[in-house]
Amino acid sequence: MPAYLLAPACKDYLWGGRRLARDFGVPSGLDPLAEAWVLSCHPDGPSVLADGPFAGRTLPDYLQEAGPAAVGENCRRFRDFPLLIKLIDAERDLSIQVHPSDAYAQAHEGQYGKTEMWIALEAAPGAFLYYGVDRPVTREELARRIREGTLTEVLRKVPVRAGDVLFIPAGTLHAIGAGLVIAEIQQNSNVTYRVYDYDRVGADGKKRPLHIEKALAVADLTPTAPVDFGPHLGTCPYFTADAWAAPYESWCGEDTFHALLVTEGEGVLCCGGERKPLRQGNCVFLPAGSGTYQLEGRCRGLDVYVPAETA
Length: 311
Prior knowledge:
Elements: E1 4-7, E2 9-11, H1 19-24, E3 35-39, E4 48-49, H2 59-66, E5 83-90, E6 96-98, H3 102-108, E7 116-123, E8 128-133, H4 139-148, E9 155-159, E10 165-168, E11 174-176, E12 180-187, E13 193-196, H5 212-218, E14 234-235, E15 240-245, E16 248-252, E17 258-271, E18 274-279, E19 283-286, E20 291-305
Antiparallel strand pairs: 1-4, 1-19, 2-3, 3-5, 5-12, 6-13, 7-10, 7-12, 8-9, 8-11, 14-15, 15-20, 16-20, 17-18, 17-19, 17-20
């Protein structure tokens, strides 16, 4: 069974930069280039198969033709494809924002909520991000601070270096700061509620909309507790992410597909009798049942898949 190299859907949000093209080889023609959705079945930006017998087809089109066996048994419990993987280049600060839970998002937006995790790939000196509140706050205080522009005074400011990992449950107030390149693994959702956007204007000359009422409804106002994910970088019902460094060998069984993102270096993927050259920024989709695969060369990256349902 072939492994498929994916071409990303790209976004030119105003806070983006040029590092995804320069350092990760993302072809887009966009300037700025803020996000590359390297594995996506979301209608707002599906990725495309770049090689193999389905080259030129979107990932959701391929999966519809290939059938449920291509994503594996672990995905049968989901209505839609469960995850999305992005590369993000924040040349400027992102808005302070929050994502809803599944229950709220499905009731109000018609799609999944958004639990996500970040792996910092590049970090400028002094780079940081906001990650939840640093003490319990009331909804009334949160609303007041949003009005007064003092919200950051109660947010946890986290210095970031390359290699740092943060897991962001739905409901966590957060923002990626300037100078970071992030690999983001998230639920298959594009629901974001902006709380504060530094009074910036978009390409149309207007301030980008805020979603304060919805944000107040979904924000978790207690500090985020650390979680021990054991041997994994992070895991939740929608995805598990592991780190790998070549030489690396693993198994893709019939329970789940695997997505391999190369975050550093160059190498070769060996799977199903094929040898596929890879470089930093490449993402490969391995259909469920692909069997043993190896990564050779001088490269490292992320192995993302859907875990079994826990009792």
